[in-house]
Amino acid sequence: KRDERFAQITNEHVDYFKQLLGKDSAVIDGVTGAAAEDEIEPFNLDWMRKYKGHCKLVLKPGSTEEVSKILKYCNENMLAVVPQGGNTGLVGGSVPVFDEIVVSTSRMNQIRFFDEVTGVLVADAGVVLEVADQFLAEKGYIFPLDLGAKGSCHIGGNVSTNAGGLRLLRYGSLHGTVLGVEAVLPDGTILNDLSRLRKNNTGYDLKQLFIGAEGTIGMITAVSVHCPQRSKAVNVAFLGVESYDKLLQAFREAKTQLGEILSAFELMDSQSQNIYHKVKGNTRPLDGEHPFYCLIETSGSNSEHDSAKLESFLEDLMTKEIVSDGVMAQDETQFKSLWSQREGITETLGHWGGVYKYDVSIPIKEMYQLVEDTRKRLEDAGLKDGTEESPVVDVVGYGHMGDCNLHLNIAVRRYDKKVEEALEPFVYEWISKRNGSISAEHGLGIAKKKYIGYSRNETTVGLMKQIKNLYDPVSAYSFLLPH
Ligand code: FAD
Ligand code: MLT
Ligand code: ZN
């Protein structure tokens, strides 16, 4: 199947791109058969191995000008494209829906500028997040975003999804930290809005539209980001908690007692930790099992002072019986291993074959109720009975508690229509009733596109369509909003 509004790629098109990009390695050509299927497969298949496109041509431009020429040519020839960064997105937006050309940012990976006084970084869209952060670490700065896929995702992809991640609580959203964007519009026009200024109230702030647009209105080629000072002292604690109510109390206390040094407050339920241990087989940080766990990180400037603060916070929570058990990392190895208990969940959930993912924002008091209600619904429907034949392995909850962002995940042995029907629209209706968001940080992609109405009203969606049409009137571009 393909979208017949768009043209089929011909050998003539391929010749144009080969000439334009010069290098052999910049064009993966499955059209003329120059590249084998397995060379193209990684660009067609998403991280979860759930969404698969049928692209036959991958282009890797090395400059903004090349991106501009590619998009102009595609626009004029009605060739559909999809921008791709590290291909770690979790909603199927980074891979072709049909046979779109993949335009990858992997060769656009230069750091263009850094200001040691203000912390402003300007870099190509294809710089890997971890590479940017390591560059900044040497200068005493930190990238204001961190997430489990840091070793593969590109900063252009991060900005395009408005990724939230593990420290949004401390450093805020990319809508605040991204100072400028350079982007190529679908007709090839280069929009240079690479401002390095924190304050710039001169008309509409157009770059904001690109942050979280998921490639629907143009392709980001570079970003300018305000990076905070890297903290000298970073501590982490891992706590076991008996109930969700107590977890809420622990969060309230963390904000009160740890105040300005609190940099992460992450939630994990026992089910997510059980799966992590089953798959990884490593030693648990705490003795016994607890219904809930939280990971608390502090980032400050005085190691002794911060450790003492965190220790007395833990003592206080134990005395008040808000937490049942806890451990603080004593060295870098323990620090990493406690964080991997949280960051590693995503990977381990797919172990049995598949996972249904819901990334939601709900008022914090009701947040975990969604996991319990979903679990009960699947049990009542006979889809989760604890046996090896049952399609559902488990229903787990984890996420960025500090941002009221829950990840409800259903690990399954196989994708199953009955499970899907039990989950949808149930989950979306549940969220909508509480005025929550059906996509807190991952975006709509192909997975959530048709459910936008559960979180946005008609007027808002109507305006979004007008914006899309303004930037991309011929729609020779991956089209994610309902049309
Ligand atoms: P891709 O996956 O390649 O693309 C994502 C979307 O952006 C697609 O729609 C694509 O078309 C578009 N796009 C990519 N590059 C550009 C560009 N230059 N211009 C225009 N559009 C573009 N997300 C969170 O928010 N928080 C997390 O904590 C988090 N943790 C994760 C952990 C793991 C293990 C994994 C696999 C993913 C996680 N994610 C998280 C998902 C997150 O969306 C991505 O990891 C990341 O932000 C996407 O970057 P990418 O370069 O891989 O983009
Ligand atoms: C996370 O917080 O771990 C990511 O958003 C990925 C996921 O939802 O699994
Ligand atoms: Zn997340």
What is the residue-mean pLDDT, rounded to a whole number? 95
Shape: globular
What is the CA-based Rg, rounded?
23 Å
| Intertermini distance | 18 Å
Taken as a percent bin, the fraction of beta residues is: 15-25%
Overall tally of structural domains = 4
Task: Enumerate the spans where pLDDT stays under 50 for 5 or more consecutive residues.
Answer: 479-483
Residues in helices, as a percent range: 25-40%
Q: Largest sheet at a glance?
A: 7 strands, antiparallel
Bound molecules: flavin-adenine dinucleotide, D-malate, zinc ion
- Per the CATH scheme, the topology name of the largest domain is Uridine Diphospho-n-acetylenolpyruvylglucosamine Reductase, domain 3
Question: What is the CATH class name of the largest domain?
Answer: Alpha Beta
Structural class: alpha+beta
Strand count: 16
Strand order of the largest sheet: 13-10-12-11-15-16-14
Number of helices: 18
CATH architecture of the largest domain: 2-Layer Sandwich
